[in-house]
Amino acid sequence: MTMYQPTSRVLTVLELLQSCNQISGAELAERLEVDRRTVRRYILQLQDLGIPIEAERGRYGNYRLCPGYKLPPLMFSENEAIALTIGLLTAQKLNLKSGTLAVEGTLAKILRVMPNNLRDRVQAVQETLVVENTAASGQTVAHDLVAALGLAIQHARQVTLHYQAYSGEVSQRIIDPYGLVYRAGWYAVGYCHLRQALRTFRLDRILNLDLLDSVFAQPDTFDPLNFVERSIANTPRQYCAEVLLHTSLPTAQARVGAAIGTLSETPAGIRLVCYGDSLPWLAHFLLGLELPLLIQQPQELKQEMKRLQTRIAQMLETDGNDGIE
Length: 325
What we know:
The chain is α+β, with helices and mostly antiparallel strands. It has helices at about 5-20, 25-30, 35-50, 80-90, 100-110, 115-130, 145-155, 225-235, 250-255, 280-290, 300-315; strands at about 25, 55, 60-65, 130, 155-165, 170-180, 185-190, 195-200, 205-215, 240-245, 260-265, 270-275, 295. It has 3 domains: about 5-65, Arc Repressor Mutant, subunit A, CATH 1.10.10.10; about 80-230, no CATH class; about 235-315, 2-Layer Sandwich (Alpha-Beta Plaits), CATH 3.30.70. Strands 4, 5, 6, 7, 8 and 9 form a 6-stranded mixed β-sheet that branches. The protein has a 4-stranded antiparallel β-sheet with strand order 11-12-10-13. Strand 11 and strand 12 form a beta hairpin. Helix 4 (about 80-90) runs antiparallel to helix 5 (about 100-110). It is elongated and about 80 Å long.
């Protein structure tokens, strides 16, 4: 049970009013663990301070801050501050006019009024997080985990974590974290002392994490986003497609995202290796490249491409015209 002091209860009322369009006296009483008469006293105290609060009369009346007035200073919890930072960084990817300047200005204003400890954690996220694909994912990740990894990366501190692999196996790792990436999901990149190699970790599979006092040397040049995309592209799936593209490497790179497949130059053309759980998906992806190609494997993908060709031809077959209007 949360214990409140009278002053903290009044501030909590203000915080709740700022976070809700309106809230009932009964809900305020329940959250603060007081009766409704005490809630009304807290509301009067805030009104005496000049904070414009409207109250609906009646047993089930609601309270809300008056619209159109200058609101009192906003108060953010640590999780709210980190969530706000992540949201602003994500907004930079939406190509809004003057988006970068607006984000930088907003973050600067927020950081100026934060306590030192919270400011350090928020700045760590701001300086270490790379946001690429803003599509939503099914992952659920705690804000404090994001903040802890941001601090570890910023100060080059090792972390120890318990990590659950796709198979369900749990292992303990000591990691030198190099980067924090959001690309339609949360990922951390770093040197794994257990595997003695660079690894990518999904944050929703980290069961717990602790910062260590030991530090490590950050690599001079390292692109965490590129490493995550290559890791995603090389994640084994049901089908592995090997295709020879008859084009130049720059053209192939412009059409094949780094997280979709790997490209390499050969004397016969550009070799593409990509994985997929669905033959129709692979076939449609290759069709969308609009490049001359030769499927080397698997044979089932060649057959799927032929079926797709037949379906396209059937779609265009109509009486008296080519089917295109």
